[in-house]
Amino acid sequence: MTRLENTRTPGRRGGAALVLAFVAVVAMLAGACTTVLTRSPVPASEAETAAPYGIVSKGGNRVRDWGDELSAGTRDDLIANWSKLQRAAHKDAIAAGEPIREISLALSGGGPDGAFGAGVLNGWSARGDRPEFTIVTGISTGAIIAVFAFLGPDYDDELTEVYTTYETSQLMQRAIFAGLTGGTALMDTRGYRGLIERYIDDTVVQRLAEEYERGRALLIGTTNLDAARPVFWNASAIAASGHPMAKRLIHDIVQASSAIPAVFPPVLIPVVTADGKTYDEMHVDGGATQQVMFFSPELPMRLVDEAVGARFDRSIYVIMNNKLRKPYDPVRPRVVSIAGSALSSLLGGAGSGDVYKIYAIAERDGIELNVLAVPTDFDREPQEAFDRDYMKALYDVGYEIGLAGDGWSPTPPEFEPWP
């Protein structure tokens, strides 16, 4: 049996190769499919305003926005809502004329390599100076890390469990026949959905709501496949909405954020339009449109400062759950290996580009930047999609880096600042 047949990942390119191979096979056989997923897609005219499950934030605002463009009205609403929360959370500092300290954390995608970010955070906790993050963002594997990172060291044990004790068979099962005969994916991820529901329970949702009221935000990124656009979801605002479907929606967006197209099932999220009609949106892996995210570049922080009436002292930590520079690795002269390597390179380049975008925002807005990625000398290879031994080894590497606290870079990879 070949590695592909055995769903093992051959080297660093294995995951990307498997994804692309599956996508190619699906494309070739699409004409033979006789059944399709029944949908009622939201009309394009309603895509801007439809509310997921009918949920809006406590202030009546949307709980998600496009990640690539903000309308003037949306930007104004974001500034008004965020500044109101900040004034309430920091009224004493504002009254005293003191600067408001705002520390953010951005977590990239990376599948099982999320073990690196989990290790960094837990090592940082052990070091004793891990801060409370005002804003935490997560995409793909970074989405589930982000939930625990946002809630703080009290959830370090859960973070360790997720990335060191589970293996492929517990999270997914092959569904290749169903996928190639009219299904939506080649893997059944009900095990992964069960993990999300088990760890993000009523207590966690309540904690998210409480932290939102303290002026903090947990943002999760997905890709709206119908629009082919990134979406920012404010999971903390969803929790604080008090809506009976809030927990369900949080489960949906965390699952969708890491739903590799064609390999993992997409997530259909019901949306309600202004006239009360219910449609659906198809959401998949946030990494399909961006690898790591921060605020939109269309939202200068000085506008928030002016609205709050205070000075902010900001910094952001970016954890890339992959290698920003890929090691030299000769490619087999086979279509799957060639295509997989090309896709891996494409995603790696996109990740570097996203870091540069965050760097540009940080330079413009006076934010201190700190970037960390999987060390290039970590050369262990996974033997399956979620290889427990591999993840534990990478977790340990991250833990030691977090404990040492000296691996952060103030610039993107290979960037040499002008003296």
TrEMBL record:
Presence of keyword Translocase: no
Protein's name in the database: Patatin-like phospholipase family protein
UniProt xrefs under SUPFAM superfamilies: FabD/lysophospholipase-like
Motif (GXGXXG): 109-114
Motif (GXSXG): 138-142
Listed GO biological process terms: lipid catabolic process
Gene3D superfamilies reported in the protein's UniProt record: Cytosolic phospholipase A2 catalytic domain (3.40.1090.10)
Entry keyword RNA-binding: no
Active-site positions on this chain: S140, D285
InterPro entries the record matches: Acyl_Trfase/lysoPLipase (IPR016035), NTE (IPR050301), PNPLA_dom (IPR002641)
Keyword annotations of the record: Hydrolase, Lipid degradation, Lipid metabolism
Residue span, PNPLA domain: 105-302
Organism of provenance: Thermohalobaculum xanthum
Positions occupied by motif DGA/G: 285-287
